[in-house]
Design brief:
Elements lengths: L1 H5 L6 H9 L7 E4 L2 E8 L5 E6 L9 E6 L6 H9 L3 E2 L21 E4 L5 H10 L14 H23 L11
Antiparallel strand pairs: 1-5, 1-6, 2-3, 2-4
Length: about 180
């Protein structure tokens, strides 16, 4: 988000999540961190020693601490995550609320990655889905015209979103 903000494009986690939910804009990749089981030994003085990662075939009767493995887009790491189904392109899976990507103490279990090359697409979508509302026109309205205007907004929103989903350069949202 800071990349966008440094370039004058305001966005937020909530907005990016909503755009994904609508099927308009996705991260280029999503990663679920692999879980590592770390063998630990607590000494009588309370010091905790790490004894390495528990291997799949290894037996261990001592204490374990679970933590997320490291991830990077280096070839070997990315391929291993891809082969395990832990790295994927988000538009290929059903939408999940982002709160499901958090574990205890709001620690990320899954991270979403965007690329700088997506900024123009995000800008385009924001321009096509944002309206300008002239408040000076609203004082004379009563409930009925406001309800009618709300229905018009909804119709324009649905039409614009469907056009964008089809990859079109949907008509810009009206200035109201």
């Amino acid at each position: 988000m800071s990349y966008c903000q440094e370039r004058g494009l305001d966005t937020s986690r909530e907005e990016l999540e909503q755009l994904e939910k609508l099927g308009l804009f996705y991260p280029f990749a999503r990663v679920r961190y692999a879980k590592l089981k770390i063998k630990v030994n607590t000494l009588p003085n309370g010091t905790v020693q790490e004894l390495g990662v528990l291997k799949d075939s290894e037996e261990w009767n001592g204490e374990l601490r679970e933590e997320n493995a490291y991830f990077s887009f280096h070839k070997d790491t990315a391929i291993a995550y891809l082969e395990e189904g832990l790295l994927w392109e988000p538009s290929t899976r059903p939408f999940q609320p982002w709160k499901e990507f958090l574990g205890e103490n709001y620690r990320a279990l899954v991270d979403s990655y965007y690329t700088s090359f997506q900024i123009f697409t995000l800008y385009h979508i924001k321009m096509r889905t944002t309206i300008s509302l002239g408040l000076h026109w609203w004082p004379p309205y009563t409930d009925k015209p406001i309800e009618e205007r709300g229905k018009e907004f909804s119709e324009v929103a649905i039409s614009t979103i469907e056009g964008l989903k089809k990859g079109g350069w949907a008509k810009e949202a009206p200035i109201i």
